[in-house]
Known about the structure:
Elements: E1 10-12, H1 15-25, H2 34-45, H3 52-55, H4 73-86, H5 95-116, E2 146-147, H6 150-153, H7 156-184
Antiparallel strand pairs: 1-2
This protein binds zinc ion.
Zinc ion binds at residues 12, 47-48, 67, 71, 112, 116.
Amino acid sequence: MADGSAGRRFQLASAFTHVVVGGALASLGPGPRLRLAVVLAALSVFPDADVIGFRLGIPYEHPFGHRGFTHSIPFALLCGAFTPWLSGRSLRTDVRSGWPIAGLGFLATLSHGVLDAFTNGGLGVGFFTPFSPERFFFPWRPLQVSPISAGAFFSSTGLRILASEVVWVWLPLAVALGVSRLARRRPPNAA
Ligand SMILES: [Zn+2]
């Protein structure tokens, strides 16, 4: 079956798309941005470290199972708090760039769960774990679920998965970034 019973192999938007979204967020942050982009891209895929739970015998539907705590808003807040430090900044001594970077870290981490909630398979996302065990999907789920293992991803279905993500995530993101750049660009005759 194509949906929830697909089991362990089909659970996520592809890692490429998570990284693209995380890295793109760096363009909204204060410079220098290279290290920030690497940190945000890493945070955008970090939630799927919870797949180790499968090996440890943690059931998918458990609060610490796949798409549970590491995909939640509280976990994103935690990661956001550490992002300035990971990016070589300090929330205490570098307040003007530290807090925006913490916010971007939160968004990059949370973007993972948000993208997963747009996928058409697996279990929903535990946005409020550990405070609520409920799992969520958005009502509209255009993204094809992607296999967790790279070997399975680079198969005949891989291209179809990536195509759905390019259409529904990469292109809108490129347009949004382009518009935000244009909006920030000062007109040539501005004072
Ligand atoms: Zn995930």
